[in-house]
Amino acid sequence: MQFIYPRSGGHDMLILNCPYCGIDADETDLHSGGQAHLKRETIGSQDTDFENYLFNRDNPMGVHFERWRHANGCGKWFLAARDTTTLEVFATYPAQTLKPPQAVVNAIKKKHPDWKGWP
Amino acid sequence: MSTRLPTAGRLIDRTTPIEFTFNGKGLRGFKGDTLASALLANNQMLMGRSFKYHRPRGVVASGAEEPNALMGIGQAGRFEPNQRATTTELFQGLSAESQNHWPSLNFDVGVINNYVSRLLPAGFYYKTFMAPRAAWKHLFEPIVRHSAGLGKAPRDRDPDKYEHFHIHTDVLIIGGGIAGLQSALAAGTSGAQVLLIEQTPHWGGRAPVDGAKIDGFSADEWIINTIQQIENMENIRMVPRCMGAGVYDHGYALAYERLTDHAPELGGPRHRLWRIRAKQIITATGAIERPLSFAGNDIPGVMLASAVRDYAVNFGVSCGDRTVVVTNNDDAYLTAIAMKNAGLNVPVIIDARPQATGPLGVQARDLGIRVETGKAIARVLGGKRVTAIEIADQAGQGATLETIPCDVVAMSGGWSPVVHLWSHCGGKLTWDEANAHFRPDPDRPPTGADGEGFVITAGIASGVLTTAEVLSDADAAGKAAAKAAGFSPKRSAGPKAKDVLSQPMAPVWIMPQGASVKKRMKMWLDFQNDVKVSDVQLAAREGYESVEHTKRYTTIGMATDQGKLSNINALATLANSLKEDIPKVGTTTFRPPYTPISMGVIAGEAKGDLFQPLRKTPIHGWSQTHGADWEPVGHWRRPYCYQQPGESVPDAVNREVLNTRKNLGLLDASTLGKIIVKGPDAGKFLDMLYTNMMSNLAPGKCRYGLMCSENGFLIDDGVVARLDDDTWLCHTTTGGAERIHGHMEDWLQCEWWDWQVYTANVTEQFAQIAVVGPNARKLLEKLGGMDLSADSLPFMHWADGKIGSFDARVFRISFSGELSFEIAVPAGQGQAFWDTLHDAGQEFGLMPYGTECLHVLRAEKGFIMIGDETDGTVIPQDLGLNWALSKKKTDYMGKRAQQRPHMQDPGRWQLVGLKTTDGSVIPDGAYGVGNGKNANGQVNVIGRVTSTYYSPTLDCGIAMGLIEHGPDRMGETIDFPALDGAVTPVRAKIVDPVFFDKTGEKQNV
Hints:
heterodimer, A: alpha+beta, B: 25 helices
């Protein structure tokens, strides 16, 4: 039988590798920046698109892409692909990209063959 | 009665007596006693009162799971409430008091709740909320408030020290019973760094009490040998009195070490929080015995069978003269045999199983103990102590067959593995039908960054019960953990143990199984929160099918013991009521800490001066010795004002305002954020960041700018100076420097990464001093150096040069409406420059001023302040700052958001000045009220005050506020009801927010 437990709240202590300086950083050294790969909506965008950009975020159980800043370190922003339920980190990678690199997508697919993939 | 036995007690030292007090009465125990064992030795079975019904309660357990024997320990600042007597080690001079009673433990008025318990069913509070409002306010709330909370909070400041340890280890082992010891040995032989922690002062756990035999040795001998082997290995560290509190993401764990609770005379830190990062964690956390649910199972003298045995074997304490054992498994027979062997009377073993034919059953009968199978306790008789039990058929409804006098009932409903730490970070459980308990599912462990499990269970915590299984499981766990951590464990055979075969247990969730409602109302599940079988059944009847909802409705498992004894019995009761399987109902969520940890240890060293780092400007020390009344601004401290001897704070502020307007003021503005933005695309970038245009600012000039979030709301403001063709210097608010710098980096790194822009936060590189007032230029000209005439350096310009001997950058900007020069010098020159200005300025009437004077000066001029006029819901248009919104730019942050209809709503509250009709000062945060009432019958609110001060310049109260249609209502009078509900509101007239020098004559000279 399967029991679904929410993760214990309060004291999250992930370790993420900063792709810039190579350090395995404790979560206390990092600032989280929410969902990654958002497309900026601005002048000329529809109200619903702008609303989605400002307020609506994915909250998946499973594969998720996040923005993190190595705030108490090199100061760089980077992105992380990880599983929100198992806490597995598939990859961290530089923020200067519009979508996850193919190698990251492959790493996720290897663990989650049924993952719908990057849109 | 409970008393000390003439012999036995493996943990006590009878040659060292210890004096302590309980509720003021002097008592005596021995070194090695817990408070609970010492109280029992003094025939003190009654140790507390229950939370809801104030029923008399005795100790039930002998360890961390104890729900009843909660004490207030210590005095004054060292007082700690809700300490378990079972885990409190006795020391000379210990003072303990029982809780939750008035006037005394023996006679408690609150017990009245017990007699009206029918009126206090499950969900009592929720149901009470539905009562008429008046009844709640005048009747229920005072009662609930009076009875809320268990222990008393200490009143004095805690004088003790606490500390944090940070440690990395290959393998962390939680639990120092025989499983933990064997795991440590097995992991340690691989060379891995091992940290082994144990919550009690003793190693080896229950094995010695249960009489285990390992490799031909007694458990005690085997433990001593094993500890010796471990101590010879440098890579294993053992820490007793250290409780594994929680397991978190990616191998992080917290442990709580109690260093001097047992020996206050030792000094040093009292508690230590271990913050551990482990590659692998082994939970060798053992198991907890379950109570049985029969009527009167909470009467003092009803105890866990294992606890009765512990007190006899470990502490030489007999809990009573006549012990009835009631059980559904073989383990409790060990208690009956131990009691009999200690020369005590065991009138009967009541076994709910149809037969007891295992070796232990045979052994008990051979000792002459009467064994009744298929039987149940129908009811326990007694008030503050058990006096007798009534026997009935387990299969029946509870008709009494026989009454047996006794003073202890030793119960056992089977054992539940301690799965808390396994579960904290997502380890899953599986239902073990044979042993009727949840145990960790090794196939679904908590997983780490690599997706592999990082927690392994060992021993009874895995769900195995015999000594042989425990040791082989622990040996395998130690080796597996070492291997997973990257080491090669040695191939070696684990220790061997021989177990007495036991007969399978039989789940018994209610006793007898057909018990009447009346009996079920006396069957306690949660002793601490007074939750009974009938309460859980009521919850199920009222539709609470989810175990998480039932928990909150009945409060089961929500007391300080977090349901360590009650949870499984409650789940089973709920499952039976819902006619579901237990695993289908599931468990509630296990959350850290395993047992409560002190507030002090959470804070650690972070208190007082070490609470957080303090940022100091170069002038901080001078201000400290010149009457600064400090105000925290972010991590900075800024002088609110500089008090002269005998002067009040308001008087000092008024003096500073008048002097700056009339003569000359000096302000330490070093905390202002200073960010260099440089590069070929810097202008383009700043045009996106600010609402107004910065790319067309000429070098040598300054411009006031606004920043909004993507959501359109104001986030910061400040003066921007263009230093050269591709360099700008952005001033931010004091609290905003790091945030705005981070904001810039975010957009540069993550959105416009192809733009060539570089930023540097140089806030602390410069001391910045504002020279403000009619005599400002006179002072600077006296010092000599650069030309600061109005023609050479007009308003809103800046220039580099020398002032006296100082390298200076002078900004001709004003936040006060006065002639003003803000002068930046290298931080190292800050104090010298300040001293020079201060000394030379005396002939011009110079006085330093603080942040409150700054506020009054800016409010008199109608300048807004981020954080006062803005609160995250205010857009520039609300503040009449449309002039700062570029119409030329196609885009800037916040522009799209400000196009949304509600941002364009003419009904938005807008900035105006407010002048009180009687000259008084409007209370800060006051709301303005209009005509009529809203749908809730409340007076309509039409605005609020954002800044309010006494203006010494105008000698009256002035304020700024956001008022509906404010700019169109100039001259109208509005009421601001006082915050204390006074009948007469403050009246204020809507005026222009610029109260002083509207044409700017004073600053443009």
